Amino acid sequence: MSRLVKTMLLSLVIIILVGVVAAVIVLNVLDKKNDDKEQTIDEIIEYSYQTPEITTDLSDGSFVRIQFQIVTDSKDAKEEIAKREFQVRNILIKELATMDEESFKSGLSNVEDILTVELNKVMTEGLIQDVYTINKILQ
Length: 139
Prior knowledge:
Elements: H1 3-35, H2 41-46, E1 48-50, E2 54-57, E3 63-72, H3 75-83, H4 85-96, H5 101-106, H6 108-122, E4 128-138
Antiparallel strand pairs: 1-3, 2-3, 3-4
Helix pairs in contact: 4-6
């Protein structure tokens, strides 16, 4: 074989090896970043939106005043959920209108879960990570 062909083959093998090593390193770094998705408390506070108090009635005529802390995954998502406050109210009113006093007392975590799922359906700039009830008055 000529010297030129040997040099080209050697160069090609080196380029392929460098590419494979670079791909492995990049994939491992990206996987580690994805594994570290657990938010710190500072991030939770920074990306949280506190709804105003919402007053609505239940199916049995009782009234409830409720407030939530909605944790998002980014600053953009927090800004978006603030703009979607009317949708938060709509989802809550529809869900609470089907509940009576007893089901409300025992099913508050279900309301939080439903709110999370329904809001994630309409979000475009991020996700809702969690919903916490921070204030609740049943009359």
